[in-house]
């Protein structure tokens, strides 16, 4: 079956049509004419796999990793770097139109190295001794001896892991580009970031692209500005709150993970802290902060949180998002509540993948 690919969609697959019905295919690019095999039929769409490329896009490149299509990571290695960034900007722009009912300019993309950027990994070893990363949408472990997106010290760590059969195991590691922290040996990492030291746990979340983290922190600080009070919601270990404490008299960090909040207490001087979900926090408090910073999970802000933020009437809402689709949905409510989107930028933390990190500023009035 022959299909012409119309566009890429959130998640990175290409979309074509068969008699008007959408079909989603991984590994293809807009404008390509491809032969596919249908693997799944649903009432409103189909899924297929690429069989042959009949007319290739000029933006297609040969993936350098031999595990492309087998390993569950880096599903966009077949796009050249400039085209990856262009497509991410288009996906965000289209998402705001489709989900946020807003027409926005094409966002600027801040980017760094296409390779060797990952400073944090999670490696699996199965009962047969196979050590590597999991296959896409599977628990199967793919043998990995070298990964081109890892910082060199982590490739050294990967090679050092035993291949012996036995019980399944998970290995966590982080590097600052020189030293390596490994699970079981180092439970807490102390990272020098800009002019401060950030403490975080290997078991918890921390950004893995250390080249782009400083410019993101600096841009968040620039958008937040200075003042009396700022709320750092979904604050994690206080990565942003650590620096906001230099610019605001009062920094309140809200985080539901007990271990992360304990580390935030070490990281954020003079901070105020709340252990619990943002939903729990807003039930008992209705402050009037000047600025609210949110960095939610992929699900974005719940309805109750969106309503509470609008009721608080901060002068600014600064939003760090790992899912621009839910950010666009939330933006629709901000607009209805009197807020205007002033700036929206993409930070390409994960080249070779369709994953998008975005930063936006909404102002009141």
Descriptors for this entry?
about 25% helix; Rossmann fold; alpha/beta; 3 domains; eight-stranded mixed beta sheet
Question: Describe it for me?
Answer:
By secondary structure, this protein is of the alpha/beta class. The protein folds into 3 domains: 2-60, OB fold (Dihydrolipoamide Acetyltransferase, E2P); 83-113 and 207-364, Vaccinia Virus protein VP39 (Rossmann fold), CATH 3.40.50.150; 120-187, no CATH class. 24% of the residues lie in helices and 32% in strands. It has helices spanning 81-99, 152-160, 213-224, 239-244, 258-267, 278-284, 303-312, 324-336, and strands at 2-4, 7-8, 14-18, 21-25, 33-41, 46-55, 108-110, 120-125, 131-134, 141-143, 169-175, 180-182, 188-193, 196-201, 227-233, 248-255, 272-275, 291-294, 316-321, 339-347, 357-364. The strands form 4 sheets. Strands 7-20-21-19-18-15-16-17 form an 8-stranded mixed sheet, sandwiched between helices. It has a 6-stranded mixed sheet with strand order 1-5-6-4-3-2, with no helix packed on it. Strand 8 (120-125) and strand 9 (131-134) form a beta hairpin. Helix 1 runs parallel beside helix 8. The chain is globular, with a radius of gyration of 22 Å.
Furnish the topology, listing elements before pairings.
Layout: E1 2-4, E2 7-8, E3 14-18, E4 21-25, E5 33-41, E6 46-55, H1 81-99, E7 108-110, E8 120-125, E9 131-134, E10 141-143, H2 152-160, E11 169-175, E12 180-182, E13 188-193, E14 196-201, H3 213-224, E15 227-233, H4 239-244, E16 248-255, H5 258-267, E17 272-275, H6 278-284, E18 291-294, H7 303-312, E19 316-321, H8 324-336, E20 339-347, E21 357-364
Parallel strand pairs: 4-6, 7-20, 15-16, 15-18, 16-17, 18-19
Antiparallel strand pairs: 1-5, 2-3, 3-4, 5-6, 8-9, 8-11, 9-10, 11-12, 13-14, 19-21, 20-21
Helix pairs in contact: 1-8
């Amino acid at each position: 079956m022959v299909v012409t690919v119309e566009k890429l969609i959130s998640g990175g697959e290409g979309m074509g049509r068969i008699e008007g019905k959408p079909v989603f295919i991984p590994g293809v690019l807009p404008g390509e004419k491809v032969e596919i095999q249908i693997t799944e039929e649903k009432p409103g769409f189909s899924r297929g796999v690429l069989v042959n490329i009949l007319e290739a896009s000029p933006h297609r490149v040969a993936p350098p990793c031999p595990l492309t299509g087998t390993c569950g990571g880096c599903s966009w290695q077949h796009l050249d770097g400039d085209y990856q960034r262009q497509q991410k900007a288009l996906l965000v722009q289209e998402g705001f139109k489709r989900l946020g009912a807003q027409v926005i300019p094409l966002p600027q993309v801040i980017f760094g190295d296409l390779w060797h950027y990952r400073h944090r990994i999670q490696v699996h070893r199965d009962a047969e001794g196979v050590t590597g990363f999991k296959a896409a949408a599977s628990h199967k472990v793919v043998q990995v001896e070298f990964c081109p997106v890892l910082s060199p010290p982590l490739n050294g760590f990967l090679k050092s892991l035993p291949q012996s059969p036995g019980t399944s195991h998970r290995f966590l590691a982080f590097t600052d580009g020189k030293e390596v922290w490994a699970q079981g040996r180092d439970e807490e990492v102390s990272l020098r970031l800009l002019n401060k030291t950030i403490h975080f746990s290997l078991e918890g979340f921390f950004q893995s692209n250390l080249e782009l983290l400083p410019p993101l922190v600096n841009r968040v600080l620039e958008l937040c500005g200075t003042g009396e009070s700022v709320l750092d919601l979904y604050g994690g270990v206080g990565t942003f709150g650590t620096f906001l404490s230099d610019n605001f008299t009062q920094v309140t960090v809200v985080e539901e993970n007990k271990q992360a909040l304990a580390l935030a207490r070490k990281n954020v001087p003079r901070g105020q802290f709340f252990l619990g979900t943002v939903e729990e926090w807003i039930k008992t408090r209705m402050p009037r902060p000047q600025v609210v910073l949110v960095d939610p999970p992929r699900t974005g802000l719940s309805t109750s949180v969106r309503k509470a933020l609008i009721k608080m009437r901060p002068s600014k809402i600064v939003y760090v998002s790992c899912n621009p689709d839910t950010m666009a949905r939330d933006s629709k409510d901000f607009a209805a509540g009197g807020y205007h989107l002033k700036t929206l930028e993409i930070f390409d933390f994960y080249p070779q993948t369709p994953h998008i990190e975005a930063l936006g500023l909404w102002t009141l009035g």
